Amino acid sequence: MPAAKAAVLERLSAVKSPDGTPLPATGTLSDIVVSDGKVFFSISVDAALVQRWEGVRKAAEDAVRGLPGVTSAMVALTAERAAGRGPAAAAPATRGRAGAQTRSAQAPEGVNAIIAVASGKGGVGKSTTAVNLALGLSGIGLKVGMLDADIYGPSVPKLLAIRGRPQVIEGTRLRPMTGYGLEVMSIGFLVEEETPMIWRGPMVMSALTQMLREVEWGALDVMVVDMPPGTGDAQLTMAQQVPLAGAIIVSTPQDLALIDARRGIAMFRRVNVPVLGIVENMSYFLCPHCGGRSDVFGHGGARREAQRLEVPFLGEVPLDLAIRETSDAGRPLVVSEPNGPQAAVYRDIAKNVWTELGKTRGSDRAAPRIVIEA
Amino acid sequence: MTWPTEIRLPKDRRALAVSFDTGEQFLLPAEYLRVKSPSAEVQGHSPHERKTVPGKRYVEILEVQPVGNYAVRLTFDDMHSTGIYSWDYLHELGRNQQRYWQEYLDELAARGMSREPPARQS
Hints:
The structure holds 2 protein chains of 2 kinds.
Chain A: H1 5-12, E1 33-35, E2 38-46, H2 50-65, E3 72-80, E4 114-118, H3 126-139, E5 144-148, H4 156-159, E6 168-169, E7 173-174, E8 177-179, E9 182-186, H5 201-213, E10 222-226, H6 233-241, E11 246-251, H7 255-270, E12 275-286, E13 293-294, H8 301-309, E14 313-319, H9 321-328, H10 333-336, H11 341-362, E15 369-372
Parallel strand pairs in A: 2-3, 4-10, 4-11, 5-9, 5-10, 11-12, 12-14
Antiparallel strand pairs in A: 1-2, 6-7, 8-9, 12-13
Chain B: E1 4-9, E2 15-20, E3 25-29, H1 30-35, H2 40-43, E4 61-67, E5 71-76, E6 83-86, H3 87-95, H4 97-111
């Protein structure tokens, strides 16, 4: 049944303007357009009152969304200049932006801290580290979520052996998948494994924003974000969309990787995201046959780099066949061989991360109050 | 690093009042913020690409949106909205307000430009 205009209007009578008048009686509504289950209209108010009306806009949107047959609702708040203030030029349409001023840079509700696991270059084992770190954090009793922000090469579904598609709830929101006690969201759940993600900047931003905000994340102590490699759109979007509580840089020990790791650290510093530390991955190789140790990539490079850049060194993970095998099989070591030496390494890293997070949270400087005088 | 405690947009939208944890308070006029926008549209990608922006005497700030935990994005009523003002930059603008403003006025004069908006053609 298509939602008719009358039904929409009826719903809107339950929404009150800031002074308590039912919305349809305020004379601020534009024509209501219903098309294919989608409802569009705008509320026009004096520019000075925009702040007070943002809640009304949101309520109107929610009310309409609840109607049977409505798949989406888009309500724009349009600011009009009061008469006599010059030509009515450039009446700014501020769809949801005015009230978003205090909202847009906040973490999704219930998510206590968001940490990004990043690397300057690809192939250093960032996703494997992120997954085992998330499980390590979960292992010390925390409620952990995992957001796979590596939209070009989502690997978290495979690493955690999660198949299927997330359930849609309330029309547009997605319920995160779960695996090994983690709440997980990845673009990999929504597209086929072989489908390439040929996306440009704005699409990247919108995909990330949706995975962050249109997913019913539960109450989480910490959300681990597996970032795509590099310092591009996705990284900037994450840093701008949410106050990241911290970033962890994964690097292999050789100079080539460390140069890029340095770039990553510099980027996070520029956007005031505390760098919680560096993890050295593929630190050394213990030969399973002879027990001899080879420093394939030159062990210790990341530790030295951490010292030089004055960021904590969180730990070193050896190059180990078991890590690769369990990762490919979707049985991360921290849960499949919890008593093994590698699991202990990840658990220690998780503890270090949690400690560092506590330190930066302690000295955390709250975002300034933004006051818009009405 | 200095950190703002409050960013206030007064009713007339013609300035931004920024208080820092150092106790400093700056009232930064919208015109000043607009012409010193850190946006690439104004600053270019190197110092010699920097533009002198005239005619913003009556510009107003429409929106103040937080960006991550390091900056605010300001939207002006001339629809300029690409400037992301980091805490550091706001502080710099506050501390050097007199000097920067004088430099701007000198630049305008040197280029034969004016703070007044161009007359509307009707």
